[in-house]
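WARN retry 2 of 3 for item q-0093 after timeout on previous attempt; input resubmitted unchanged.
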Amino acid sequence: MTDDDPAITHTDIDDGLVDAIAYEIARLTKLRDRTNAQIAAITEGEIEPAAYAILFQLIHSGPVRSGALAEALYSDASTISRQVASLVKRGLIERRADPADGRVSVLDVTAAGRAVATQIRARRNESLRRMLADWTPEELDTFSTQLHRFVDGYEVTRQRMLADIAAHKDLQSYYAPAESNS
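OK item q-0093 returned
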């Protein structure tokens, strides 16, 4: 590392700071999960927030097979299948023959699904605007940039994390303290 290179290594980051970040991530995850459960309860299951990620993914990517959708959403096939069935039943997405291979189907958003996605986006954006109302434009820009960078880093690092855990089938060795070089 030189004076021109301000980058730090992962071992240079203070444990207290990493703990504080991990705590806030866990807190956000719990808040989001609880809010989604409350939304589902209030609407008697009519709105399952996790299922709406499917609408936005299909709008973003266009028609895709169920397996590709599960992969894009980091979900398992059975969860996607259940959520897709609910969205198809409500007329928000449809199955149709894959133009490249008529033996399989792809999922696509219907006009009703696009209308619902537009409403969800407007409500979500209004909630975020309320949350961020006292932030400066510079703070918003920095947060957006850093959040994108963080999520990209998580996406890359998660593969290593999963491989490390898979390599330690007994998990006790995974959580054992690292040996000291001193």
